[in-house]
Specification:
Blueprint lengths: L8 E17 L2 E15 L2 E7 L12 H19 L7 H7 L6 H18 L4 H4 L6 E3 L2 E3 L5 H14 L4 E4 L6 H10 L5 E4 L9 H6 L8 E2 L8 H9 L4 E3 L6 H10 L4 E4 L7 H13 L4 E3 L6 H11 L33 E3 L12 H6 L1 E8 L4
Parallel strand pairs: 5-6, 6-7, 7-8, 8-9, 9-10, 10-11
Antiparallel strand pairs: 1-2, 1-13, 2-3, 4-12
2-succinylbenzoate binds next to loops.
């Protein structure tokens, strides 16, 4: 608790970073990752966060254009205006409450505020959030490949690196036969599939057939905004359903669990509007004995570090999409990239805040637009 934070300026950056390999999902292919970085300055410290959206609104309804607009026009002025009333970082989400949705935009500012707060307290973000885990098991998410042999060799390589769980992206035409061959070749590997909402209840026959493969879960098989049809599907499927896109806050989780729409929750800090809601969802799922895991959004090092902090909470009992920097980047924006501590494991940073050092040189190298907002202007 304690004194309020005095933010003197906020910097928004639009970033573009080349991925090592294109990443294909049911909603499209990403070659260069576009996203935003938020810097929040106070007393010589800087809180950082990423806004994990893209140029186009394909994962959800937000894109960089909408996020920038909503942050610049509404969220940043609201934050500057009300900052003296914020006694603790969880107050930021209350300030943003009048603005509907725009979770990824809100999360960028809210998460930067948490980092800044933790740094000014000289404590790690994990500690501030009451994280208990020091080292995390890591899974990998593998995009749709050009052929099944190409996929099998990718899985081989990631398994050899020590990843504790393999997640495969699926879509109509890249599903049953692919999973069958993967299961034949890797009978014991912890395996799951993520459809990014590519199916409907008309595909129920096919989805039920996935029960053959002993998957840990199927992630978001049906529409991005649905919890009703998922409940129908879950009643007919043995494999646990995990919701990603459909979950924005703890009430969504309550409704989904009450309806029996899923048995596992993917928590992404961005998708739920920031760390406060992410922790709420974690705590609620713990009460209801529902496991959670930390999803990924092709983050650079700043977002990766935020994910490690939240994933250090006790109920993150399933390996997350919290891979080392090298999974996606030739060069990350950190002085030292995030790496395995041992195969398949990553240590939660213990330094102040997100506990990683951002390289200003690399940050600038991949910045395409930069704008600074001063508290006095609002
Ligand atoms: O659905 O989890 C998803 C990447 C972009 C958008 C949505 C998703 C993903 C991933 C990648 O699966 C996870 C990662 O960052 O490693
Ligand atoms: Mg997903």
């Amino acid at each position: 608790m304690g004194k309020t934070l005095n933010i003197d300026r906020i910097v928004l950056r639009k970033m573009s970073m080349p991925l090592k390999d294109p990443f294909e999902t049911s909603f499209g292919t990403i070659k260069d990752r576009s996203f935003m970085v938020v810097e929040m300055h106070s007393e010589g410290e800087v809180g950082y966060a990423e806004v994990v959206t893209e140029n186009a609104p394909l994962y959800n309804e937000e894109c960089i254009g909408t996020a920038w607009h909503v942050m610049e026009t509404f969220l940043i002025p609201m934050l500057f205006k009300a900052q003296n009333e914020i006694m603790y970082p969880d107050g930021v989400s209350s300030i943003f409450k009048p603005i509907k949705r725009h979770y990824l935009a809100k999360s960028g500012l809210e998460s930067a505020y948490w980092d800044l707060h933790a740094k000014l307290q000289d404590q790690s973000l994990s500690t501030i959030l009451s994280g208990e885990r020091e080292e995390l098991e890591v899974g990998v998410s593998i995009g749709i490949q050009s052929s099944i042999p190409a996929l099998l060799s990718k899985i081989d390589a990631y398994a050899a690196e020590g990843y504790r769980r393999i997640k495969l992206k699926i879509k109509p035409g890249w599903d049953y036969d692919v999973l069958k061959e993967v299961r034949n070749k890797f009978p014991h590997i912890p395996l799951m599939a993520d459809a990014n909402s590519a199916y409907t209840l008309q595909d129920i026959h096919l989805l039920k057939q996935l029960d053959e493969f002993d998957l840990m879960m199927v992630e978001q098989p049906l529409s991005h905004d649905d919890i009703i049809d998922h409940s129908t599907l879950q009643k007919q499927m043995k494999t646990p359903i995990c919701l990603d896109e459909s979950i924005h806050h703890v009430d969504d989780v309550r409704r989904a669990l009450d309806l029996g729409s899923c048995k596992i929750i993917n928590i992404k800090i961005g998708r739920v509007g920031g760390l406060t809601e992410a922790k709420k969802i974690h705590d609620y799922c713990l009460e209801r004995n529902v496991p959670v895991w930390c999803g990924g959004m092709l983050e650079a090092g700043i977002g990766r570090a935020h994910n490690l902090a939240i994933a250090s909470l006790s109920n993150f009992s399933i390996p997350g999409d919290t891979s080392p920097s090298s999974r996606y980047w030739q060069e990350d924006i950190l002085e030292e990239p995030i790496d395995f501590s041992k195969p398949g494991m990553i240590q939660v940073p213990t330094g102040p805040g997100i506990g990683v050092h951002v390289s200003l040189e690399k940050l600038n190298k991949y910045t395409t637009v930069l704008k600074t907002y001063h508290s006095t202007e609002c």
